[in-house]
Amino acid sequence: MRALARYATTNVTVRAMRSTLVSAVEFDALARAPSLGAAWNFLKKTAFGAALPDVDWNRSQDAEQYIRHASAIQFQRSVRHLRGRPATVATMLLSRWDLDNLQTALRAWHGHDAEQTAYSPPGCYVHQIAFDHIAESNTIVEVAAALHGTPYAAPIIAASAEYEKTHSTFAIELSLEKDFYARLIDATAALGGADARDGLAILGAEIDLMNLAWIGRMLRAPQAPGIDVSNAVIPGPSKFSRSLAACGTSRDRLAQVSDDYVGRLMPHHDDMPSDVQHLALLEYAVADAAAALAQRQFERFPFRIACIYAFYLLTRLEMKNLIAVFAGKAAEMNESDIRKRLFAVR
Hints:
This protein is an all-alpha fold.
């Protein structure tokens, strides 16, 4: 009876997960909405809308903040009945949203943005972060001190010398990302068996996406011609991330790796003239493959911990798509251009 009860609870959780995701039809309606306000009102009528705070806003930045918060709440609600190892995994994944907020606060602090310096998100989800103390800090060491008792202080200290040298948050943010995924990979591997195998596969897909975004960011920087790509790669379990890490400063090698994987995932693509365009195309192809991998987890029987990783990845892709829609609406982009910015929705 205990096993049956546990099975019933976890499979109710799977149904709850899937029912909260915004559908492809709903994304179509959002893209077609005639205005920013119309899109927002439509979103509030979806399952996602139940997690949106009841507030008014008039800036796309506010919309992004509320979407991030609602996405975290949606994930948190959907996994709240889990116990034991699944609950531990879910909590660790939920902390990704704390890291998002911390990185936003760090950029505001670094840029001395008068409007954003006192950045205070709607909530903390796993780790209590003293955002007011971050805003009041004078040095990066003081920022790290404000994060005492969280996992984020040590990676900031580790990258503080590079921050002082470059006067850029790039090294700090990358150090935080590497630390987060290293801890998550270790915890996932410790599950053992099929749970570890499938969890690492999904996690690897997300890390691939993160690596493409980081490298694209580096290639757009003023110092791009001589960058060491391997420094921007988060160590991940996939062959693709390992290949990126081996590129070093060779742009020819980076182009070869991206060509190889674009050709494998999108065999009928047209040649692209630049590294950045190759990587952008590859990012969409990897996201499509990742979404398909995640959806397959929900089709397996019975419930597996990998379903939590799958729901997490789909939730994060959904969040990025929603942010892209509202940023596009704010910029008065047309429906076609907005659609080009979206990852595949399944």
